Amino acid sequence: MTASTYAAHLAQLNVATLRHPLDDPRVAPFVEMLDSVNTAADGAPGFVWRLVAEGAADATVLRPAGEDVIVNLTVWETPEALWGFTYRSEHLEVMRRRREWFERHVEAHLVLWWVPAGHLPTVDEALERLADLRAHGPSARAFTFASSYSAAEAARDLRTAARK
């Protein structure tokens, strides 16, 4: 985990439903990109942490959302850092080609939320945030890039909701 001066970090969960098993030749280009994209993430400005399966280089063997669903769970210092990695690095090539390897989701597949600096979210926590987004839409608890909250806004809204 990368050290940070921020009081809160942005957690991110992305789920993707595979069109074919990871060992299928049609998914090989994605699998071949994993190491370099993960290495780029690890070294990206604002990167804090990513979920990795025990004894593995990534989290693709973890299937908490279904046998054909892979998860990507990361923590970043700021939304700008995550956005920069997602859309201004070699990760963009994965985004451009995602329809070759993954089904189109009809419901939310990406969720963002704030965590205290130093907190590493669990997969269960992340899946609960995604379920919240799907059930209730964007809120201070679970949002997207398009419906984002700052850490201060989220903290204020969550305190207000807790008082009700």
In total, the number of strands is: 4
Instruction: Kindly state the percentage of residues in helix.
Output: 25-40%
Report how far apart the termini are: 36 Å
Rg for CA atoms? 16 Å
* Major sheet: arrangement of strands: 2-3-1-4
**Major β-sheet profile:** 4 strands, antiparallel
Which percent range describes the beta-strand content?
Answer: 15-25%
What global shape is seen? Answer: globular
Q: Helix- and strand-based class?
A: alpha+beta
Low-confidence segments? none
Number of helices: 5
Give the rounded overall mean pLDDT. Answer: 93
Kindly report the oligomeric state of this protein. Answer: single chain
H and E string: EHEEHHEHH
What's the gist of this structure?
This protein is an alpha+beta fold and 164 residues long. The protein has helices at 28-43, 79-87, 91-101, 123-136, 151-163; strands spanning 8-17, 47-50, 69-76, 110-116. It is 38% helix and 18% strand.
